[in-house]
Amino acid sequence: MELKLKQPKSYYDNRSSKKRIVINQGGTRSGKTYSILQVLCEYCLENRNRNSVITVVRKTLPALKGSAYRDFLEILNKEGWYSEEWHNKSEMTYLLFGNLVEFISVDQPQKIRGRKRNVCFINEANELTWEDFFQLNIRTTDKVILDYNPSDEFHWIYERLQVREDADFFVTTYLDNPHLDKDLVTEIELLKDADENYWRVYGLGQRGFSSETIYTHWQYGDFPEGCEVVYGVDFGFNVPSSIIKIGFKENACYVEEVLYETKLTTNDLIERIKGLNIERHAEMFCDNAEPKTIEEIVRAGYNAKPAEKDVYAGIQKVKSMPLFVTQNSVNLVKELKSYKWKLDKNGKVHPDEVPVKFNDHAMDAMRYGIYTKLNRPQFQILAW
C-alpha cells in the first residue's frame, strides 16, 4: 500500500536517509514537515504491529497542535487511515497500524524524560535547547529527525549535529515543493525586495538572524575622524567587565570593544583604564548599581558617571541610528548576534519586551554609553 499524496523533495530525502540523525533545514513552504510526517506514516505501514513508538515534539503544546499534529490528522484523513477508535484526543496519541504515534511538547518535562521511543521527530528544532535535544536523543533507539527554518545564525544544530558522521543534512526551499500554489510562490518571492534577511531564511533556506534578535541593523566599520567619543562601562568579576568605546558623527554611531575581561578588582580595572589611554575628560557612563566603583574611578582622575539604565528605551535608542562595529570587537560581535528578546510560552516576543539576561555585558556597556549620551537634550551629533 502506498501513499496517495505526491511528494516534495523532503519526502525523498527522509525516505532514503540511512543515518541515525536526519537534519532538515528549509525555507517556508518547502514541504519538509508534511513530508516527514508522510515518511513516519509509511514507517508505521511497513512495520505493522511492531509496537513501535514514534514521538513528534515541539517547544510548546499550542504550537504543536497548530502545526504537526494538525498535518498528521490531515494525512490520515486523506489516505483513509483515520479511525476514531485509534485516536486518543486527550493524550494526543494515535495507534497507526499497531504502532503508537504520540505528540508531546518540551513544556511537558515528564514526557520528554519518560519512556523510550523508536523514532523522534523534532518539529521546529531551533526552538529547543541543547539540553532538550539531549534528553530526547538518549531515549530514542533508532532515528531522530529534525526540521527548522534557519533563522538563527548560531545554533547548537550547526555546531553539534551537522558535524556528526551519523547525521544527514538536507536543505530545501519553496521551489522543492511542486504543489505550492502560484499565489504563494509570488508572495514568497516578494521577500527578495522587501527584506533581505527574511528572503535569505524563508526564501532560500539559508542561515540568518532570528526574528527575536534585537540588533540586526549593525555592520562592520571603522571610526571616522572627528567623532565625539564617550565610553560605556559594565562592571563584573566572575563575568566580564566590559568597556565599549563609542563615537558619534553624522547621525551614526561607531563602537569598539576595548576591554572584556573577568576577575578584575576595582584597582585592576583602573589600571586597565590607564593602559587604554582613555582621556581624562572623556565621559564614561557606568553601571549605576556600583556607585562605590564609580567613585573610585573618579578619584583616579577619570570622568566616570552613573548611566541611565532604562533597558527598553536604551535599546530603542541604539536601534534608532546606523551602528558600525570595528572588526576587532570579537566579543561585542558575538553578543550582538546572540542578544535576543525574551519569548513567552508560545514562542512569541514576551509582552514585557525585555531581553534575555545572558551573555550581555558588552550589550549593557554599549547601551549605557549610547542611551545616556543621546538622551541629553543638549547633545548634538557632530557633522564635520
How many structural domains are formed by the residues? 2
Q: Using only CA atoms, what is the Rg? A: 26 Å
Order of helices and strands: HEHEHHEEEHEHEHEHHHEEEEHEHEHEHH
Which architecture of the largest domain would the CATH scheme give at its second level?
Answer: 3-Layer(aba) Sandwich
Helix amount, in percent?
Answer: 25-40%
Q: How much of the polypeptide forms β-strand, as a percent range? A: 15-25%
- In the predicted model, the low-confidence regions spanning at least 5 consecutive residues are 1-5
Helix and strand content put the structural class at alpha/beta
CATH C-level class of the largest domain is Alpha Beta
| Name of the CATH superfamily of the largest domain | P-loop containing nucleotide triphosphate hydrolases
How many runs of DSSP E, i.e. beta strands?
Answer: 15
Q: Treating each run of at least 4 consecutive H or I residues as one helix, how many helices?
A: 15
- CATH topology (fold) name of the largest domain: Rossmann fold
How far apart, in Å, are the first and last alpha carbons? Answer: 76 Å
Which outline best applies?
Answer: elongated
Biggest β-sheet: count, sense, barrel?
8 strands, mixed
Average pLDDT reading: 90
Strands in their spatial order, largest beta sheet: 3-4-5-2-6-7-1-8
